[in-house]
Amino acid sequence: MPFVSSFTVPLSSRPLLRLQEIRAIEAVEVPLADPPLMERAGAAIARAVIAHVPPGGLVCVLCGPGNNGGDGFVAARRLLALGRRAVVIGRFDGGGSGGEAAAAREAFVASGGVMLAGPDALETPPAAIVDALFGIGLARPIGEPHASWIEWGLAQTAFKLAVDVPSGLDADTGRCTGPCFTADLTSTFLADKPGLHTLDGPDRAGKVVVDSLGIDPRRHDLGLGRLLGLDAFADHLQPRRKNTHKGSFGHVLVVGGAPRMSGAAFLAGHAALATGAGKVTLCALDPNILSFSPVHPELMVGNAIPERGVDVLVVGPGLGASDPARALLARLLPSPLPLVLDADGLNRLAVDAELQESLRSRPIPAILTPHPMEAARLLGTEVAAVQNDRIAAAQELARRYRAHVVLKGCGSIVADPDGTWAINPTGNPGMASAGMGDVLSGLLGSLLAQGWPVPLAARFGTFLHGAAADRLVAEGIGPIGLRASETVAAARQLVNEWSERNRKAL
Ligand SMILES: NC(=O)C1=CN([C@@H]2O[C@H](COP(=O)(O)OP(=O)(O)OC[C@H]3O[C@@H](n4cnc5c(N)ncnc54)[C@H](OP(=O)(O)O)[C@@H]3O)[C@@H](O)[C@H]2O)[C@@H](O)CC1
Ligand SMILES: [K+]
Questions:
Q1: Contacts 24+ apart (CB under 8 A), 156-160
Q2: 90-137 residue pLDDT tens
Q3: pLDDT, tens only, 230-252
Q4: Which domains does the chain have, with CATH numbers?
Q5: Residues with Cβ within 6 A of ligand 1?
Q6: Closest residue CA from atom 21 of ligand 1
């Protein structure tokens, strides 16, 4: 039987709060909450365990020294009270961040709960492991004994649940700081956190469920970050009116295609056509490029920039680093048309102050689509520094170049010049293959040509491309061997399905 899994995309956008924003909510709500937030958090964990673990299975709760551990003690006490088998692995050393967690530990022990000094003391293998070692208070890489407990936990076949954040993962950046838990499910509190959705976060957190602990988020500043969901695009995802013509959907000019690199420009052009641009022209640097594509004869191909009639520029796919490439950039960057700049266009930009200035001065900010290496070049830093805090890097690029930035990678970041940002939850490792960036550029150009506002186009193009790859994987096409050109047809299918589903009265 062919391998087929179900395809879903996140439907609802939601706020992503960084540490300071979560701490600000805690500062207001903790003194007011009755029952206390820790009690509510522990109850949520107990409910999640019960939903996933049959009665009779042993639940092993790993408790750390702070309030994350406190949540774990409450959960363990509640599980016992509900007739479940639960033990805690933790230390009686009295350390930690004070009263509430210590009180939770005492209440657990007073209710007959058993605390073990390490996993060796377990008599039966656990059915579930609850990771309540460290949450948002993680201050440095995890050492002993907690590192060994994590290593032991990862070797178990049990269901694994992380409390708030997998221990060892930085909740702001998604970086594993050292030993790091890997969960099937992360139950995260008050609001969702960016680190669960970018870099190492998606590998470590498993499914993420947000529990507001009964706090109304509208009472608080929800910051500048969002996790993208399909609902963000509903207003612009509409079926087409009947009374339209190709001019209604814009003319995209793809500029690139240097000798031996024309495939990149064809991919971008193909993606633009297949997702709804009215017309696409390729201006290639390769003088020997075919005058038309036998595979996609609808594309107009040449070596010249059309004098008029173009609505959107996509510059960079296969552009190369030659002097003529630089001359094209110098000519096109000041254009008043919406612009997507990718690949070699970005590399040239990184070393050319004059081009940078003309990018910054554009009347309509461009969309830049760097991968981490290109982002590092643009920021004059190392890839590791970009990946250390992908949100901050994307924000800095957006500010410095006055552009909308899509920082690609696991959990692509979209950042705007005004400081707002989003994480894209779609996509998979099949997209780590040649030509994917060219397809994304083409999709973005296509959306701009069809009138999407620039920040929304940056978000939806990224979301759509990842979702197309996800659908293909769900159909058994990838992730291994997924080809960029295959994502084009899947994107076309999705955009039609979603638009039809959103049909509103004209
Ligand atoms: N506030 C509330 O009411 C609510 C909080 N909630 C819950 O609390 C969590 C936040 O709690 P938290 O602030 O106590 O931080 P937490 O993640 O437990 O760790 C801090 C402790 O660990 C220590 N430590 C740090 N790194 C270390 C390391 N590598 N190795 C060893 N020790 C290390 C650090 O001590 P340090 O040595 O750094 O002084 C401190 O003792 C949050 O994620 C959520 O689960 C929810 O219930 C909602 C309501
Ligand atoms: K944890």
A1: 156/125, 156/126, 156/129, 157/125, 158/60, 158/125, 158/126, 158/127, 158/128, 158/129, 159/52, 159/53, 159/127, 159/128, 159/129, 159/184, 159/185, 160/128, 160/129, 160/131, 160/184, 160/185, 160/206
A2: 987 655 455 899 999 999 999 999 999 999 999 999 999 999 999 999
A3: 999 999 998 888 888 888 899 99
A4: 18-222 (3.40.50.10260), 243-501 (3.40.1190.20)
A5: 26, 30, 37-38, 41, 64-69, 71, 96-97, 134-143, 163-164, 189
A6: 66
